[in-house]
């Protein structure tokens, strides 16, 4: 088996020693090449080249951004894509944890090695974003327009600071109190339904939990998984009592979100979000930019993960 290990050395929990242990362990079972990323988009380019070279397995060692780039690179070429392996090295590691992988890189490496040895894998559904002009982007666990994307944009501006739950919480509070471009006016169109107008944010999930805050899972669409369609969580108002209500629900152990100002769907094949003015869009915590129309499509079994 031929494999490429893509390492983001800047990821929160990635260390040279951990990288060397992972590389040595993988090299004992596969013919291994190693790529250390040093610019945005490098992981995507490396994974695309691996697909062109008919590599069997691409292992992403980094955070969710690294995983997203690797997935987009592998699937950009067309034809059969390599299998994906994940060894978490970021702060949240939502995709890896949603797959049931251990948070510690060494433990996750053992899981990956056993999967390779036993030829064990599973199919995972993904979300595909069409942002117009022939541009598409895959996401593994979430995308969003509005508040969450504004938070991602601010974190992006602070690149170089250590990403942490505390940083995201501070910026989320700041952007709630002082939105940069006012409250969005969004419309969601779902096939077979009337358009849903007057929405202030739209979160699109490909699995549950939506994200993690340290060890605590945050749930928005409990009925969404890698084996279903997409989840929609949208709010008609950003008034304080409405937001507080749903934050409490999302952080609860039950994680069941409901309310009169909430529009929620857990298994949607396709939906379109439009805005009167450009609204920021994020995919897997990566800022895509401001858009007025975005189409989200569930793509069942789009990826094979070694696990």
What is the rounded Rg? 19 Å
How many strand units? 16
Shape: globular
Low-pLDDT sequence parts: none
Let me know the average pLDDT. 93
Measured by DSSP, the beta-strand proportion falls in 35-45%
Describe the structure.
The chain is of the alpha+beta class. The protein is 29% helix and 36% strand. The chain has helices spanning 16-27, 42-52, 64-75, 94-98, 105-117, 147-157, 165-177, 240-251, and strands at 2-7, 31-36, 57-62, 83-88, 121-132, 135-139, 142-145, 186-189, 196-199, 201-205, 211-213, 216-218, 230-235, 262-268, 270-283, 286-306. The strands form three sheets. Strands 5, 6, 7, 8, 9, 10, 13, 14, 15 and 16 form a ten-stranded antiparallel sheet that branches. The mean pLDDT is 93.
Compact summary:
The protein is α+β, with helices and mostly antiparallel strands. 29% of the residues lie in helices and 36% in strands.
Detail the topology: elements first, then pairings:
Layout: E1 2-7, H1 16-27, E2 31-36, H2 42-52, E3 57-62, H3 64-75, E4 83-88, H4 94-98, H5 105-117, E5 121-132, E6 135-139, E7 142-145, H6 147-157, H7 165-177, E8 186-189, E9 196-199, E10 201-205, E11 211-213, E12 216-218, E13 230-235, H8 240-251, E14 262-268, E15 270-283, E16 286-306
Parallel strand pairs: 1-2, 1-3, 3-4
Antiparallel strand pairs: 5-6, 5-16, 7-10, 7-15, 8-9, 8-15, 10-13, 11-12, 13-14, 15-16
């Amino acid at each position: 088996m031929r494999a490429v290990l893509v390492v983001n050395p800047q990821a929160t929990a990635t260390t040279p020693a951990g990288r060397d242990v992972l590389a040595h362990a993988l090299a004992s079972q596969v013919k291994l090449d190693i790529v250390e990323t040093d610019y945005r988009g490098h992981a995507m380019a490396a994974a695309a080249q691996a697909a062109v070279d008919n590599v069997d397995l691409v292992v992403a060692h980094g955070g969710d951004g690294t995983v997203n780039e690797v997935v987009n690179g592998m699937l950009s070429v067309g034809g059969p894509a390599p299998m994906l392996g994940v060894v978490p090295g970021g702060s949240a590691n939502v995709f890896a944890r949603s797959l049931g992988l251990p948070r510690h890189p060494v433990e996750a490496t053992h899981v990956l090695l056993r999967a390779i040895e036993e030829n064990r894998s599973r199919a995972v559904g993904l979300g595909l974003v069409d942002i117009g002009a022939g541009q598409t982007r895959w996401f593994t666990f979430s995308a969003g327009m509005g508040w969450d994307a504004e938070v991602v944009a601010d974190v992006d501006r602070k690149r170089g600071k250590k990403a942490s739950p505390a940083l995201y919480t501070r910026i989320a509070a700041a952007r709630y109190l002082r939105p940069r471009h006012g409250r969005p006016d969004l419309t969601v169109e779902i096939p077979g339904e009337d358009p849903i107008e007057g929405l202030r944010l739209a979160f699109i999930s490909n699995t549950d939990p939506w994200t993690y805050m340290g060890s605590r899972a945050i749930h928005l669409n409990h009925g969404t998984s890698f084996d279903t369609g997409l989840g929609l969580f949208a709010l008609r108002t950003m008034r304080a009592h409405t937001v507080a209500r749903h934050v409490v629900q999302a952080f609860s152990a039950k994680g069941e979100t409901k309310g009169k100002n909430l529009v929620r769907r857990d298994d949607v094949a396709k939906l379109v979000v439009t805005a009167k003015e450009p609204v920021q869009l994020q995919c897997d915590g990566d800022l895509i930019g401001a858009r007025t129309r975005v189409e989200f499509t569930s793509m069942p079994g789009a990826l094979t993960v070694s696990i």
